[in-house]
Design goal:
Layout: E1 7-10, E2 14-20, E3 23-28, E4 31-34, E5 41-48, E6 52-61, E7 67-78, H1 83-88, H2 93-108, H3 114-119, H4 121-136, E8 141-153, H5 155-224, H6 230-251, H7 266-286
Antiparallel strand pairs: 1-4, 2-3, 2-5, 6-7, 7-8
């Protein structure tokens, strides 16, 4: 009804383009406007001033011959003071922006290897934004922000990268495990060496105590019993030790020690053999 009387409404954040007999006349701001169609005025169309977003997917190849899909997000809007240029100079704004994005990405990414492409994502976005800003400003558009939101390598490349990463982590884990086992073995060996050292000290002290006790017993027995020699005392000590040993063997149900011969008279033979062995061993040193 409003158009029948020559009145039109322009919504907020929108501008309208007014023509007279097909020629641009002016840009209409938001509000109500009189448009007398009877003298050739008409509404050519409208243009939104709101921020718009365009997602562009571009497939390209890196320097190390890996194909990747780069996803760029372009945020742009038309300028109110250049609404006529934005309306008339471009027939398809999104395709024009997409062409510039393709051009910059396919000129930048092939100079970088795959790892550098991920690391320099912000540099790629900045290059795209600068190129778009120079190109689209002439058409009445402002590039607000350019983002590289994703870089997608081929599925096989992603799988290979994950396997390389997993192998590297397993190698580090194996190295750490081997180092831990090495430290454990060293500590165990040190503990065993210390234990054997202390055990040796204990055995040495035990034997020293036995020798001291035997010496004291021989001296005391010789002094208290006149006419006895050291040999008699040692024979008696050996007989006593023999019976103590047999008693211990008999008391144990799992003993595997066997003395042959095991009669009491064998003690004298054993003592004689030990004494003769010591005399024979000391004979060369005295001669």
């Amino acid at each position: 009804m409003g158009q029948a009387f020559g009145c039109i409404q322009v919504d907020q954040s929108t501008v309208a383009v007014k023509e007279q007999f097909g020629k641009f006349d002016e840009v209409l701001e938001p509000g109500c406007h009189f448009l007398p169609w009877c003298i050739g005025y008409q509404l050519a169309g409208s243009l939104t001033l709101r921020l718009q977003q365009l997602d562009v997917r571009c497939e390209t190849k890196t320097k190390d011959n890996v194909f990747v899909t780069v996803v760029a997000s372009i945020q742009y809007r038309a300028l109110a003071d250049k609404a006529a240029d934005a309306f008339y100079k471009l027939s398809n704004t999104k395709e024009q922006i997409q062409a510039y994005v393709f051009d910059v990405i396919r000129a930048t990414v092939p100079k970088l290897d795959l790892d550098s492409t991920f690391e320099q994502k912000n540099d790629i976005a900045k290059a795209v934004e600068n190129e778009l800003e120079k190109a689209m400003s002439a058409y009445g558009f402002e590039i607000v922000q350019t983002l590289i939101v994703d870089i997608e390598p081929d599925a096989q490349v992603k799988r290979a990268m994950n396997e390389i990463n997993a192998a590297a982590r397993l190698r580090v884990a194996a190295t750490e495990k081997a180092e831990a086992e090495k430290i454990l073995q060293i500590k165990r060996a040190e503990g065993e060496a210390e234990s054997k050292y202390l055990s040796g000290l204990g055995i040495a002290r035990q034997r020293q105590a036995i020798v001291d006790g035997l010496r004291d017993s021989v001296i005391a027995f010789s002094e208290n019993v006149p006419g006895t020699s050291a040999k008699d005392v040692m024979d008696m000590v050996l007989v006593t030790q023999y019976f103590d040993t047999m008693k211990e063997i008999g008391a144990s149900s799992k003993s595997s020690a066997v003395f042959i011969p095991h009669g009491p008279g064998a003690v004298k033979d054993i003592a004689t053999q030990i004494r003769e062995g010591l005399l024979q061993g000391s004979a060369p040193s005295t001669s």
